[in-house]
Design the sequence.
């Protein structure tokens, strides 16, 4: 049986006058934080665009090494996870806590699946000597001069993104824990919404990474 | 023993400080941290000046000189001037000035202090390893190749960047969401406006520094080649990335200083600020333009001539809103009933020194002049006039101004004035000769120089001792005031902003009841 969280379970910090004020402060703060994330990735994207225009042939050659099918599956996985994340917030608002928790578990599972596929991709590349930077040791077919630079970008961009996926999974795990404690509910779904915003951003960044790295001509 | 409960005594014990969520206590934590690092950075500066007293290698080894130069820069920038005003005075007075009980996210506020301390300790850990000798700018390719301990310092700066981002984020949300009833945006004190524009820069620029520093670490650990020409990378890209943050960062340093100066000039001329809205717009304007001027650091690094011309023009544009502020301050002083107490002395010192710093900035923005002056002592003198003559003067002035509010005690006016005189005279004796040395072609960052430069260098070193002495006097005066000073009333200056309406020191929740605001911030009735 679902227990309805009473309004008292939602804490109001001493320096706020009302829940509305507290919640709108949290939302603004979260959006500002997302701005900083975009700017941080922005640096890498600028670097990518710059070197892509300098050495288009290296980037073209590099993209042929990537398995676009795995990247594509990962794109779908993340899109589904964004959907289940949004569902969990919807269910929390509607006080369907079982469905909310189920959606969070699904989201977490999608994150795990993404990391697994990522791991397969990485290990496959490293197996043939495609390491980042000065450890690059690939000499086989399709190797062009400067290919290491492409893979520097590949590892840096996907690596930074993967670290964000892990962070997001941590946050979702925390939200799930709170949901099991009945500390998330129709009166108190904002923390879940912030986690969701972060997760959507992680998804969005991948939406840009995938075509830039895998599908580029 | 009928002392009122205030934020200083309502809880006791070390953990009530280290785990505090009170913005005022966190401000005090920042104060202690920042002045400790200021002392360390200052000692490095004095050591450098000592070595430069005479030509040749005489007091310290050249290698150590390079490290002292790096640590002086990195400590003063990342641990003193950037957090200096926002995180210390801003943390303490932003909520008070808008009639709030705290900042929006007190836990994040505490976290940002821990970020600063952790980052600073990691950076300083490099001292017991091999030190670092790249200069605070970590320019590639040298920062990739040097055998010194670059990684701890870069990692430290990365972590300290989070401190800056979190403070900025907290301030923007606080200003948007926690203003007292009636406190409209255009009734906010100008210090709050300056913190707001600063916070915008902190949020938009610092993440770019974060990725730049991460890339530099990746470059050293993995050799990713993005800044390494051997692998097709471009070291100039590092300079672009670095200055995309670090030029806006100098406005992180100066904008809040300007905010303090507005408060001081109003309080000590006892009349409303001249041109309130134009100062607000100038703050926002400086923040906006600051993102499009970074290329003036690369006039001789190999960027296109057209880029140089555009960056030169945009850089000069910064002079417009800045001059607007200087004229407004001067107009506010005009026919005011001036009280030359220590805070106003520092504010006047700011006006004088910052003017020189600003005007020489325009000279450096002129490409043809910059080709000659680039990387000479002229640049060193210019940015010390802005950073020390501007920011540090403002911190000191603001500290004396708000000290009665923070600790409920008055400082000794005579010692305050002596500290100002020593710092002001010492500063000019130290740095004015450097303009001449730079124009004569003496390059910066070297431990040695040809003999003809010696007399002016000796003068400069002499001045540095006066600055050092001035800060020692200031330290003694402040510590004495905090522990032994006479009790301060709630509003010793007759100032009009909200923080003076509560008791000194303020209670934990700042105001006994939420203030209702009905007028602008500087309502002197004239």
Sequence:
């Amino acid at each position: 049986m679902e227990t309805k969280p009473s309004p008292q379970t939602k804490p109001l910090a001493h320096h706020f006058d009302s829940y509305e004020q507290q919640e709108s402060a949290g939302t603004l703060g979260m959006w500002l934080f997302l701005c900083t994330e975009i700017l941080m990735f922005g640096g890498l994207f600028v670097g990518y665009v710059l070197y892509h225009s300098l050495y288009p042939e290296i980037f073209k050659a590099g993209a042929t090494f990537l398995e676009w099918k795995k990247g594509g599956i990962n794109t779908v996985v993340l899109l589904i996870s964004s959907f289940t994340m949004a569902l969990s917030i919807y269910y929390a608002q509607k006080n369907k806590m079982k469905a909310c928790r189920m959606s969070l578990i699904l989201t977490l599972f999608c994150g795990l699946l993404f990391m697994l596929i990522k791991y397969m991709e990485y290990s496959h590349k490293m197996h043939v000597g495609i390491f980042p930077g000065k450890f690059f040791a690939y000499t086989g077919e399709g190797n062009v001069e400067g290919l290491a630079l492409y893979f520097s970008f590949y590892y840096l961009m996907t690596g930074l993104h993967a670290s964000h996926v892990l962070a997001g999974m941590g946050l979702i795990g925390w939200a799930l824990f709170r949901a099991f404690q009945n500390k998330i509910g129709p009166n108190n779904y904002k923390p879940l919404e912030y986690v969701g915003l972060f997760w959507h951003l992680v998804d969005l960044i991948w939406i840009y990474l995938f075509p830039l790295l895998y599908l580029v001509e | 023993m009928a002392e009122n409960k205030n934020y200083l005594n309502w809880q006791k014990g070390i953990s009530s400080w280290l785990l505090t969520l009170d913005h005022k206590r966190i401000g005090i934590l920042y104060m202690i941290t920042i002045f400790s690092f200021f002392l360390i950075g200052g000692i490095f500066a004095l050591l450098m000046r000592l070595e430069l007293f005479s030509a040749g290698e005489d007091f310290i080894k050249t290698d150590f000189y390079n490290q002292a130069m790096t640590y002086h820069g990195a400590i003063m920038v990342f641990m003193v001037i950037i957090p200096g005003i926002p995180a210390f005075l801003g943390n303490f007075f932003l909520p008070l000035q808008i009639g709030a009980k705290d900042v929006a996210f007190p836990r994040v506020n505490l976290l940002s202090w821990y970020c600063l301390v952790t980052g600073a300790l990691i950076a300083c850990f490099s001292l017991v390893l091999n030190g670092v000798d790249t200069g605070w700018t970590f320019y590639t390719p040298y920062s990739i190749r040097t055998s010194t301990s670059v990684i701890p310092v870069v990692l430290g700066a990365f972590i300290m960047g989070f401190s800056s981002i979190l403070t900025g984020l907290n301030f923007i949300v606080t200003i948007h969401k926690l203003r007292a009833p009636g406190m409209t945006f255009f009734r906010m004190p100008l210090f709050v406006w300056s913190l707001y524009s600063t916070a915008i820069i902190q949020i938009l620029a610092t993440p770019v520094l974060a990725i730049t520093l991460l890339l530099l670490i990746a470059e050293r650990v993995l050799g990713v080649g993005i800044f390494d020409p051997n692998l097709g990378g471009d070291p100039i890209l590092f300079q672009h990335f670095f200055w995309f943050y670090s030029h806006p960062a100098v406005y992180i340093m100066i904008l809040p200083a300007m905010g303090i100066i507005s408060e001081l000039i109003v309080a000590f001329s006892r009349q409303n600020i001249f041109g309130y809205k134009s100062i607000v717009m100038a703050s926002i304007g400086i923040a906006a333009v600051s993102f499009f001027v970074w290329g003036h650091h690369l006039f001789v690094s190999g960027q296109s001539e057209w880029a140089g011309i555009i960056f030169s023009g945009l850089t000069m544009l910064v002079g417009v809103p800045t001059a607007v502020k200087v004229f407004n301050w001067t107009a506010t002083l005009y026919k005011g009933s001036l009280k030359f107490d220590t805070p106003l002395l520092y504010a006047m010192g700011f006006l004088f020194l910052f003017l020189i710093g600003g005007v020489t900035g325009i000279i450096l923005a002129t490409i043809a002049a910059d080709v000659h002056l680039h990387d000479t002592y002229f640049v060193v003198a210019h940015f010390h006039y802005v950073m020390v003559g501007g920011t540090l003067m403002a911190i000191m002035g603001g500290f004396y101004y708000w000290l009665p509010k923070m600790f409920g005690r008055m400082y000794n006016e005579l010692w305050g004035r002596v500290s100002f005189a020593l710092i002001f005279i010492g500063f000019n004796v130290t740095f004015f000769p450097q303009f001449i040395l730079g124009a004569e072609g003496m390059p910066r960052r070297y431990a040695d120089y040809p003999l003809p430069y010696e007399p002016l260098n000796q003068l400069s070193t002499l001045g540095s001792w006066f600055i050092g002495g001035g800060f020692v006097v200031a330290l003694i005066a402040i510590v004495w005031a905090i522990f032994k000073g006479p009790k301060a009333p709630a509003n010793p200056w007759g100032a009009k902003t909200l923080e003076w309406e509560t008791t000194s020191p303020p209670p934990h929740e700042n105001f006994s009841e939420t203030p209702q605001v009905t007028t602008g911030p500087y309502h002197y009735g004239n």
Summary: DSSP finds 15 helices and no strands in chain B.
